[in-house]
Structures are given as C-alpha cells and as structure tokens.
Design brief:
Elements (H helix, E strand, L loop, with lengths): L1 E6 L3 E10 L1 H18 L3 E12 L1 H16 L3 E5 L3 H9 L7 E2 L1
Parallel strand pairs: 2-3, 3-4, 4-5
Antiparallel strand pairs: 1-2
C-alpha cells in the first residue's frame, strides 16, 4: 500500500494505491494521521482510484481518517472508488457517514 499526499491548508488529497487489508491498515492510518498533522487542511479527500483490494480493515482506516479530520474541523470526501471497494463501503454504511463520489 502506498499513500501519496498533495495539497495545502484548504484541501489535502490522499491517493491510496495497492491493497488495503489488515497487513497495510496500521501503516496507512499512521501515514494519514501524519499527513493531517502536517497539512491541517479544511477538507480531506481520499482518492481510492488506485485501490486494488479492501477488506474490513479498510473500513476501520476510513473511519479513523474521518474521525481525525472531524477533530481538526475538516470535511472528508472519498472519490474514485472502484466497484469492489465501493460495495464494501456501502455494505458497511460508510456512504451514510462520508460523501462517496
């Protein structure tokens, strides 16, 4: 799993590439928290276009990212979600908590 951060104080975009499973989850959470600490954005966008696989550990990662963004007063959006990860997120009800576009 790789995470690429681009942005500024207004918008932080994090692109996730690879597999978001239990092996990658803790490192991904740390990377997201570090990027949020550095940028302190008003809005966070997770770009999942490069995500090949996601299991329930990915749901936990997204919930932790959303909680941390909320603590900073930032909104969060998830974009470019591939079909299979989208089904996982929708089945878990993440689409009722975070805007999926």
């Amino acid at each position: 799993m790789t995470l690429t951060a681009t942005g500024n104080k207004d918008l932080l975009r994090l692109r996730l590439d690879g597999e978001l499973d239990h092996h990658a989850a803790s490192g991904t959470v740390r990377s997201i928290e570090e990027a949020l600490r550095i940028y302190v954005p008003r809005a966070l966008t997770l770009d999942l276009s490069g995500l090949a696989f996601m299991d329930s550990s990915g749901i936990a990662v997204i919930l932790k990212a959303q909680r941390r963004a909320c603590e900073l007063g930032a909104s969060m959006t998830i974009e470019n979600v591939p079909e299979r990860p989208r089904r996982v997120l929708e089945a878990a009800g993440i689409d009722r908590i975070v805007n999926l576009i």
